[in-house]
Design goal:
Blueprint: H1 4-50, H2 52-65, E1 69-75, E2 80-87, H3 89-96, H4 108-120, E3 123-128, E4 137-143
Antiparallel strand pairs: 1-2, 2-4, 3-4
């Protein structure tokens, strides 16, 4: 089995390879496949069963497994779920490596993988990616009827 520290650079290299061969659209198709085949059966199932609380359950598990530095909040009354990523372990690891290992649109996968699933279940998804190579980002899921 490949370790996380080996997987992240390999994942980034796959993105770079696909981009070279098929352009950004090819990378997006790859991410859509991952969203459909991996994220949907897990995150989608939790959202279907538990609504916005399913987002909290899904990311609680995955972010803690990754040892991420994050603040996560769920307000079911307001219909809001938010993650403030203080330090993404994946992006932080990539930033310690040779720049040639980093796919320049690496953070885009977090937007596409999860947006596709969240919006399928009638919620809005806002993603603010890492802008300054600080390995931090923010995402917010809101029940559409609660958007002001």
């Amino acid at each position: 089995m490949i370790s996380c520290t080996e997987f992240i650079p390999a994942y980034s290299q796959v993105f770079k390879y696909l981009h070279e061969k098929e352009g950004y659209d090819g990378v997006v198709r790859f991410w859509e496949h991952i969203s459909d085949e991996y994220v949907e059966p897990r995150l989608g199932k939790l959202i279907k069963q538990k609504g916005i609380a399913g987002c909290y359950e899904y990311w609680s598990k995955s972010l803690n497994e990754e040892n991420a530095d994050f603040i996560m909040t769920l307000d079911e009354e307001k219909g809001e779920f938010e993650i403030v990523m203080n330090k993404c372990p994946s992006k932080a690891l990539l930033l310690t490596l040779d720049e040639s290992n980093v796919y320049p649109h690496y953070c885009d996968h977090c937007d596409l993988l999860y947006r596709k699933v969240v919006e399928k279940y009638g919620m809005s998804y806002y993603f603010e990616p890492d802008k300054d190579n600080l390995a931090c980002c923010r995402l917010k899921v809101t029940k559409k009827e609660n958007i002001r």
